[in-house]
Specification:
Order of helices and strands: HHHHHHHHHHH
Radius of gyration: 19 Å
Distance between the termini: 44 Å
Number of helices: 11
Helix content: over 70%
Number of strands: 0
Length: 262
């Protein structure tokens, strides 16, 4: 599971980095939608167009980049202190720092849908189906979250590698981080928030915290019972992640359907 989760994490990060690289290089605002129009000339590329626009809108925002940099500095500092002052528990501390970083950068997937609300005119006239748009926006939020957490995770891991300590069991941590980002993406549809609206962000984070608490209350109760029934622990973890992904897509579909019919 550790190798599989690491490869999946690397895959999502690589795909997201490849798609959002032009945004990080500073593509002007008016070129975002014109470049998206080029995708529509290729049959079956609607998903890539939605994903590309969603990632570019987030990657180009300076407040998002400053927030990720701040989280990375805090995560690196905490990891350095834990590695130097508490080397015996540095691995456990790294796991906690990684989870803290994931929750801290959750504003990125939370705000992805809300930040793209002003581009609804494009998708109404574009040759993109309802399902393609929903899956593209869910993918954009999740990939943006993966990109956002990669930088703090790297900063937090380097001190432990520098002192020669081994890495903790990354399989379970990777699954929890993925579930956290997926839930943030789903809550971003349920309680949309913009990057400039503080009150929306507070409500969205409150809903995200409640949903995350609910998952961590139900997950540890369900997982041991499935393991007792004979299911492999790795399969149970993957199954819970897939269940959350399905729930997120369902919530996103219902939210978008309601928006289009009101």
């Amino acid at each position: 599971l550790q190798l599989t989760s690491g490869l999946l994490l690397l895959l999502f990060a690589s795909v997201g980095a490849w798609i959002s690289l032009p945004a990080l290089l500073g593509i002007p605002e008016q070129q975002t939608f014109s470049h998206a129009g080029l995708w529509f000339r290729v049959p079956g590329s609607g998903f890539a167009a939605v994903l590309s626009v969603g990632l570019k809108r987030m990657g180009r925002n300076r407040s998002v980049r400053r927030h990720i940099l701040f989280v990375a500095l805090v995560a690196g500092t905490l990891s350095c202190l834990a590695s130097s002052l508490l080397p015996d528990v540095a691995q456990v501390a790294l796991g906690g720092v990684l989870l803290l970083a994931a929750v801290s950068v959750a504003i990125v997937p939370l705000a992805t849908y809300g930040a793209n609300r002003d581009s609804n005119w494009l998708w109404r006239s574009a040759p993109v189906s309802f399902a393609t748009y929903v899956l593209g926006m869910v993918g954009a939020g999740f990939c943006a979250g993966i990109l956002a957490v990669v930088v703090p995770a790297t900063m937090a891991t380097l001190p432990l590698l520098w002192i020669g300590g081994g890495l903790p069991e990354l399989g379970t941590i990777a699954v929890i981080v993925m579930v956290t980002l997926l839930m943030a993406t789903g809550v971003g549809f349920l309680v949309p928030c913009g990057l400039e609206n503080t009150s929306e962000q507070v409500l969205s984070y409150a809903a995200f915290g409640a949903s995350l608490a609910g998952f961590f209350a139900v997950g540890p109760w369900v997982a041991p019972r499935l393991v007792v029934l004979g299911f492999p622990e790795s399969l149970v973890e993957v199954g819970l992640a897939l269940a959350v992904a399905g729930l997120v897509i369902t919530v996103a579909s219902l939210r978008e359907y309601e928006r289009r019919n009101t």
